[in-house]
């Protein structure tokens, strides 16, 4: 019995003057309207929220209350920046088990409530607490900077190649009214922006954005009974990895991504990603993360990610358009909202409702790739129409 | 395809001088030994942790790392004080879907890291934030005090009847080496203890305990292949309710409990609870909560819960022995650990490994009932051997 996505919603990402629950409401209402459903028709609500930059420590309670799901939301899930995917999984598996016919996954994050210094003191802990974070002060940009320098040293990846990821992201986001940033930038601007953690500069980093997203999933039975047009979940993959960076086998990629992709590809019987997907959404929290994702997901060989973006292969018309809505880098990265915002993008594209950002469809199949921490968690979903 | 529990572990509950991950380790190692498995044989680890009284805001990362599941733990779940049950559900549904054959649910809470005042300022938010919590100062004892006064006014329930719940809990806990409190108390001591929120006194309230618990679940296939003795999950029920107490239909019970029980009973085809279960574990965060649970779970008519405990019906030899290991009230209530500690108790009893606390078995079937907040979340599981 298949499970499909029948409705999606996404709030405007950015610095938002509203509460956590109001943000969620914006996405939920769009998703309900999209699926032509009322709250009463939803059997289960799964709320994804990390919450390290918000004062709301039991977010499912207030979000469900405000969105009209107070009788339908028995749990919250969290997997750092991959929380949205964990929420999709929880809704998916509840339907698959037969416990729900229609379920909503909500991802919401109020990121501008707690300041960065306070948040870093706690949020940085997804790394190895004692040694890396407290003793050496490694925060997320520093972790990804280690990946970037390793990739540069081993494969000759350049700062310009990384900059091209940011330029592409901003160019796409400029056409996406829901994106945090809607201004194009040049390679020179990226290279000239201030250094955050060498070699990553300001424009190599995703922003601190408030945002919410929602996806309504339904059983094949419910889809058919209602005569709906669903986007089917064809593959599910997840993995996790040590949080102790000194124990990682390598810095030039994320093992969790590789293992999650293998699991999803196995389930969906995908052997050649480039010949199977029309486009992909990947976790580009930093520009180097997108380059590593091309490789770890099998879009190009390990070490060739820099070339892949330089040749335009991840742009419209390339071998695998990636992050057509602007990615985490320019659309924004409200932690728990990110994984479900990827599903929003995939559904819009596969339905050919992406307007100026529409990709050409041939396989009617796409992939989402969502990472938590620095590869502590990884989730991959495959969607098909 | 059924799912069964094949191994359980539980740390000593109490004020523990160790970290969150060390606590979890204690429970995990016992569960692995109980199931005769190594970490490598586990496909999935689900970590339940509320975290409002701990500094570890992404607990799954550190817990999985320390317990040897760094490659196996793609998510954390939370449902306030019902978090442990949500973790059981997540492991259960992952096996049921076929994504895992063997999964571990870990519930862990470090409660003595953040002081009560700080925690109340944030943790109390599972109530309606603006009106109840900030304006009127309602904390958890105050919420349950409202339930108690309503129950007394409507049904004549007495403070002595509530005290009897505490006396029973302490009597059982005194024989449980893992319990936080191991000292019997008298009705007079309960009635004479200081008032926390009238009519609830100190001994009507569960303590602030550190603790962890773990349960290993397996598919029927894995159970048979290994020739194991499993305790089967025969019913699953959940519900949630408004966090705005002014919108609740009544204060003399918890609607979420009733709905969760209905769902679980329907799934397991239970029509007469008293004739179906040998014993039950219920969510006695306050003595009045246990009395309401007798009624909401169908062990007696609404309003008769006080009488039920007074006549010894919830004690050994009664119609439905409840909380034979001491309950939240005396064994302790480390939020996320509680729901899985109930499974620990059920497995030990159904295997007839409960020693001095063993109940007589006839149906070889029992129930766990776990509440989040003041009935914001409720989970009911039915287990059978």
Structure explained in plain terms:
By secondary structure, chain A is α/β, with parallel strands linked by helices. Chain A has helices spanning about 20-35, 60-65, 85-95, 115-125, 130-135, 140-155, 160-175, 185-190, 220-225, 255-270, 285-295, 305-310, 325-330, 335-350; strands spanning about 5-10, 45-50, 75-80, 100-110, 195, 200, 210-220, 230-240, 280, 365-370, 375-385. Chain A has a 9-stranded mixed sheet, with helices on both faces. The longest helix of chain A is centred in the first third of the chain and has 16 residues, at about 20-35. The mean pLDDT of chain A is about 95. At the A-B interface, helix 2, strand 3, helix 3, strand 8 and strand 11 of A face helix 2, strand 3, helix 3, strand 8 and strand 11 of B.
Largest interface: A-B, 54 and 54 residues
Distance between the termini of chain A: 15 Å
Topology as H/E string of chain A? Answer: EHEHEHEHHHHHEEEHEHEHHHHEE
Total helical segments of chain A? 14
Quaternary class:
homodimer
- Count of beta strands of chain A: 11
- Tell me the strand percentage band of chain A: 15-25%
The unreliable regions of chain A are: none
Structural class of chain A: alpha/beta
Keywords (chains A, B): Isoprene biosynthesis
Domain Thiolase C-terminal (chains A, B): 239-385
Domain Thiolase N-terminal (chains A, B): 12-220
Pfam family, one (chains A, B): Thiolase_N
